[in-house]
Every structure is written in structure tokens, then in C-alpha cells.
Amino acid sequence: MxxxxxTAPRRRWVTLALLGSLAANLFLVGLIGGQFFAEPEETRPxxxxxxxxLRVAMEALPEDRHDAIRAFWAExxxxxxDQWRGIGDxxxxxxxxxxxxxxDIEALRAAQRREVAARGDIRDLYNERNADFLAILTDEExxxxxxxxxxxxxxxxxxxxxxxxxxxxxxxxxxx
Length: 176
Known about the structure:
There is one protein chain. The protein is an all-alpha fold. It has a single domain (about 50-175), classed as Four Helix Bundle (Hemerythrin (Met), subunit A), CATH 1.20.120. Helices cover about 75% and strands about 0% of the residues. The N and C termini lie far apart (about 65 Å).
């Protein structure tokens, strides 16, 4: 046989590598595509509780009130950025306490308590400003905001109940 008539030996590993790469790429495309094309109903609600946030007020009140709401919140947010930066500093303290050698559990607990207290202070300030905001609304507007907040809470509670039902049904089906 001449060299021209010989065929090169097939390298099976190249074919397997290409198929593996194709499978991995298809998996990633499906994973990312599933997140991108998911319906809004399939996304997880951000909060479970009763929220009187700006978003709820904007949802509940007519469009002509939105500029006043934005202006109030822009003014009342002043100073909170520095408090959030302080939280970042406290989290770095927690990180340093976790990495310390020798490890001092009391130092970690103290840093965690300071961080929780600082977050509580921010939450208290937010609640005070939220109450100030609700005080400028009319009775009807406050009722509309409260209705929207309650409806969102019920909607989200139903989401979590349905999610639990599905999970329990899947577990029951797996046991059978």
C-alpha cells in the first residue's frame, strides 16, 4: 500500500471531547436562557412581609403624585449613604475577626452585635421617614397604600404557600 492510500487513524478521544464540549455548552445555554426567558410569575418575590416602601406607594397612588413622592424620598434619604458605608466597615471588622489567628469568638460576636445594631438604627431611621411620608398623604391615599401593601403581602404569601405545596407533592411522589 502506498502512503497516499492510507487513511489517518481516527482519534476517538477528539470526537468524545467535542461531544462533551457541545453538551456542556448546551447545558449553559439552557441554564442562562431559562433565567433570561423566565416569566415574571416564575421569579421569586423579594419580600414576604407587609411593606410600605416607595415602590408600593408608587403602585398605589396616581401618576400625578409620583413626582411629589420621589422628591420627598430624595430629600429624606440624605445621610443614609454614610450609615451604609459604616455597615461596610463593620462587615470588614467581622471579616477580620473571622480571619484572626488565634480566633477570638468574643471579638467576632461583638463585631456581629455592632453590625446588627447599626442595621437596626438604619431601619429605625427608615421607619421614621416612612411615617413622615405617610403623614403627608390624605386619608384616602394612605388607605390606598395600605391596601396595596396588604395585597402584595397576600400575593407573596400565596406564592410561598404554593411553592411549599409543590415541594411537598414532589417529595410525596418521590416516596412512592
